[in-house]
Amino acid sequence: MRRTLGVVTLAAVPLAVIGVFFLYPVGGMVARGFWPDGSLDVHGVLEVLGRARVHRVLWFTVWTAGTATLLAVGAGLPVAFVLHRLRFPGSAAVRTLVVLPFVLPTVVVGVAFGQLLRPTGPLGGLGLEGTPAAIIAGLVFFNIGVVVRTVGAFWEGIDRRTEEAAATLGASPFRVFRTVTLPALVPAVVSSASVVFLFCATSFGVVLTLGGLRYSNIETEIYLLTTQELDLQAAAALSILQLGMITVLLVLSHRTRRTPAIAQAVRRARRPGFRDTGLLLWTAVVTVFLLVPLVTLALASLRDGGGWSLSNYRALQTTGTGNALLVTATSGLLRSLVIAIQAASFALVLGSVVAWLVSRRPAAGWRRRLSAGFDGVFMLPLGVSAVTLGFGFLITLDHPPVDLRTSSLLIPIAQAMVALPLVVRTVAPVLSAVDPRLREAAASLGAGPVRVLLAVDLPHAWRGLLAATGFAFAVSLGEFGATSFLARDDSPTLPVVIFQLLSHPGPANFGMAMAASVVLAAATGTVMLLVDRLRIGSVGAF
Amino acid sequence: MVGTRALAVRGLSVSFGDVRAVSSVDLDVAEGSVTAVLGPSGCGKSTLLRAIAGLERPSSGTISYDGRDLARTPTHRRGFALMFQDGQLFPHSDVAANVAYPLRLRRRPAADIRLRVAELLELVGLAGFGNRMPQTLSGGERQRVALARSLAVEPRLLLLDEPLSALDRGLRERLAGDLHDILRLAGTTTLLVTHDHDEAFTIADRMVVMRAGEAVQAGDLGEVWQHPADAWAARFLGYADVLDGPPALALRTVVDPDATWTQVALRRSALVVDPDGPWAARIISARVTPEQVRVELEVEGLGVRSGVADPAYSTRAGDLVRVAVRADRVAALPGAQNRE
Fold it and tell me: Which of A40, A311, A519, B144 is 20 to 30 A from A105 in CA distance terms?
């Protein structure tokens, strides 16, 4: 009984936090649509959902996200096999590269693809600039790592002997894959596909920078409606639509998700053989696809007029041509770092409590359903429009009972909400992998609950916690959707600086944006490299 | 010899980086025979089996079947079947679909498959289990299903990797006996690896003893059992004690005065309390078991040894008794130099 009370108390803290800083702002945003001037107006919302433009936006969201998901899964599956079942020189480096785009600021990804596809760019000849194809390419680039990580981690956990038994019974390698491996992989594939679809359907930075004004998905449409047309009712209606869609997807993904059996019998990854040639070539193609935008970006940042120079980097200490910025880009970087540290610490504390609670699965019955529901609540920020969240912060947290209008913690809190699901998803599998008998053994030897935590869970989980912190840090460093609402012009973060530079004319500002993007990409990339050294399989896997 | 030797392994080595898991092993399995590879865990026996199945690439040596080299034959074309200690049933298919898997691969007609599956489940004593899912079966039942699946297409060679190790003791003993009968009934050529000598003795009729990647000894069960290659093999096969030096010579003069060996392995029951025995001894300790009394003896000229006594004799610590040796419970070892 006392134990249950303790768990409930522990659960109450993150629930309260997510209630105040997530459900309340999002709810406020939704309420703004239903009660535009104090009285309930369902008709107005329905009218918005009937608009032809809304239908177009919805259809565009679904088909681009669907296509990008199919491509990411199709391209990622062979790579997951090559990177997680084969071992060859450089495989570790490619494993890190694959997850890098995921933490890259969406703005940077957009800029990199724009740079690649503009008429004078390396791939300008394809005429893809400003087309849906460019947006889809950007989305695939961004999410392929999610597929590789999620499916790969699961693939590693599959007992290889089942496949070997099938092979000795006379099944050819392809038959083994189709009749044994694929059925076992289905949960991981469905789970990663639904998460990728979620990310694609709520993608903001990529669509905004690559789609311009011609193409919008629900997310950018919400942004345009709130900031340009000030049509809050329509924005709220779209938010509700998005929430519904996301809830369905999260339920679907939760149904099929199974924590990968974290390598009980770690088997040697084998060396590639002759028959793997095709898969290796495909992995090389994907690697090039991931590298080209980054290289293009780096090269563009070094161009000044006709020649090569570092002037764009030197310009980061200025406010840009025609004072595009109110502060220097470097101060934006500093601010980004401070905010990311605050956001990561916040997400870590909250996320580990949630992960700890989620990882002690009750055996069955209502407790188990309650635990699953609890888990689901903290996954919501994964899919809820960051724009909705940001705007919700603006309209609900600026007056009592919670007045944070002037608080410098507003942005870190918003970013922590965005990073929270990622921390939970990284730490929970690590904690679930602790044999409960170890805890029972420690307890039977006289260790109290805190002592058990320190003696059993912590030594096992510290690397996971560290990896989650780094992951959260990298994600908040690049967060753009929510921050773009909350950052004031006199104290922007680096992604906001990049966006401001891009929306001001002039080659110097453009060059500066490139340099800032490279700095941002380098910062997140370095953090992810360090995180990957910790070898926590659940980073970037869902 | 021609035609009876189905599997022939010559000078086979398998290396993982610098580690040599299997080192120049020669091995023959005659058609219709059941051969056990016996060795402690980590001796390379499973790697040997995987190499024969085509799952590991040998660094040198040859594997051939009926005189045809298998180096270029991939696993699924070898016509073998490999069964592990657990974890190889397809969790998403029911028992019948699992057993039918290799038959479907060979595109047998559906009606034939149904008949054959029923026949196989009958053979392994699981008739009527076709609709069950693997998760609902006990460990022993799962192993039986795996066996039925392996036997479904009458493999040229059945490879068993510690088939009973995951089971508890009583079940293991029963299933070992069943396995012996099923394999004889089906006439399947079988290679089995295990670390448990009881299991090997129950199931197999030929035995290869492996240590640190090398085959130390090979032969028929009785032959290996009665003539262990060296002290290590004797201990691994269940001999309780190995004597050399003066105690061995003292024993030799009683057992076989004409022999020249200098080292000898003793079963637990080799020394027995017997009023007419040639040695005087003092009982150090005695422990009653259902069959006999196990005693610790200080034997004149032999040192402290274990032995047995009939419960009819008074056996208390400190008693002075006489001790005899049963010649059929000792095994002479060739040369003392084999000990490393």
Answer: A311
